[in-house]
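Pilot study result, target chain (196 residues):
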Amino acid sequence: MKFNIISECKKTGARTGEIITDNGIIKTPFFMPVGTYGAVKTQSSKEIEKLPSSILLSNTYHLYLRPGMEIMHSAGGLHNFMSWNGAILTDSGGYQIYSLKEHRKIDKEGVTFKSHYDGSMHRFSPEKIIDIQRIIGSDLMMVLDVCPPGDCSIEEWEEAVILTTKWAQQSYEHYKSTKPLYGHSQSMIPIIQGGT
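Predicted structure:
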């Protein structure tokens, strides 16, 4: 991945740019259609290609649970699974796991959670999130993050930032030791945390 600034407003600092991936150039700023489960609702991949966007957003958590990594791998990754020739960004699923409040446990090494589909138990670590996204084959892979509630204390925010940063470092080390599976490069993107 490469990022170039194309233009910048001297008055406001606003800028345009481009993100270059093996699966296309993404002009910034951009609209990113959401294909959480590997499909954009009510739109075919051919219809999406007509939109002024060259990137889709999908979700690691949901794809991991359904259709699952065996199907995703046998399809040759998400690009083939959904017949999409553009770039794909996959969110780690940190927010979805956070929303399972009663069905998840976060510790220093990762998250254990109960599937909202069938009640089965699963474990995500910073390394496993990278492995899953290697199977998905997304161009831009987000790291696992801790997503605390907006009304948490400053101390809880600090703990979340520290743990997210630790996980990002672990993810990066694992990312460097693994390779893409489908012939195109993949970039790992850290999460920027913050509180109010």
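One observation from the pilot: The helical segments are 45-49, 60-65, 69-75, 78-81, 94-99, 126-136, 154-177. A full batch analysis is planned for the follow-on phase.
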